[in-house]
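Sequence in, structure out. Go.
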Amino acid sequence: MGSQSPGPASGTSSGQLRQIGLLPLLALFYAYTAGGPFGYEEIFRSSGPGMAILFLSIVPFFWSIPISFASAELNGVLPVQGGFYRWVRAAFGDFWGFQCGWWNWTGTFLLNTTYGVLLMNYIANYVPMSRAETWAGASAVLILFSWLNVRGIKVAGWVGTALQAAILIPVAWLCIVGLLHWHYNPMVPFVPPGKKLSEVFGAGLGLAMWNYAGYEQLSVIAAEIKDQQKNFLRVLFWNTPLNILTYTLPAALAIAVLGNWQDWQTGYIVTASKLVGGPALGVAMLVASILGVASLSNSTILYTTRIPAAMAEDGYLPRWLSGIHPRFGTPARAMAVSTVVYCVLAGWPVVNLVNVYIWTRIATSMLTVLAAWRLRSKWPDVPRRFRIPWGKLGVAYVVLPVVALCALKVAGSEPYVFRWAPVLLAGGPVAYAIFRWVFHLAPGAAISPPASAQSVQE
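Output:
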């Protein structure tokens, strides 16, 4: 970028960044995209167990796998810190690059604040708290995980690995007990009796899309991945089947034991575990659900705070926001600013507004797959270490299902989402105008096509 090259090529940032290997990287990404069989249980009651399991099994082939293909190819062309935000800028220019980064960053204010509040709500079921105590507890949790992330990606990675190990032990326990006490067909009924397929399709699709969203986020830490090209592909390859098993197997086996799909609602996996395996398994799953929310918070802070640092490095945001901690090699200032916003929002009833955030996730996911399509024509001769398979048909497979699912989800949004989500998206152009023409911040020159798709370590 003029005198500055983006992200990893910049000596001001990438040379100071620490790196992690495959296992903690997979644990962090799995935590961000799934983390455990928690928070989606309503899909079995609203759509019926058969439809729910079908959705959870096939939606990845039209949602997360296409986004993974796009991310893998774009990473092979531009393996840069900030990932998908910088890919979109390279494909569509300064304005859309800013929108992609801004929407991702500000949208996740709602998302990560929600995780802090949800964790305290779990605890409040057993230790009654006032609203002020809930806010203080949520803020303390968010500050703790932000501090762990400031300490470095290695710390965050091994914390994420330990959390996931603790979470998956009771999940495996539930699956084993379920296999030994199978009584019912978990696919029956396919849809709730008395309801038409059209009546349950939208809700099930929305929940499934939510569960499999965020696959482009792995790219934002490109400079912090050891053996980056290989491990990037390995994580994308393993993460989808792990997520499918997480969302289908424990719940299906519990329903096969209990047959009570109509009782399932958010958080019911804890009750189901108690009914299937007794009080000990119920307590273990309760602890796992709390750790699952903590793990989500830890990984979300990791992935979302790299974006404002990269935008500041490019000149979109104040330069001081791009500062890398001299000892820990993390964007500590971007993390600190984000954490302050998290704590402020934790005092408000933001849990339901996570549905508003989904529109920003849809926008960034669409821009990512469209960037893969655009750079195929804009930079046709640039070497790609990974190419979306099947030629033009493969590119169509990557773009069209994602655009179609996004359109269906937006069309099926709740009325309050239609009121507030456009306001959140409109914040992008407004912020762009303010930073460009009020504060006179201008990004550097457009990213040039690389001579070769070199890895970030090179």
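Check: The chain has a mean pLDDT of 89. The chain has one domain: 7-438.
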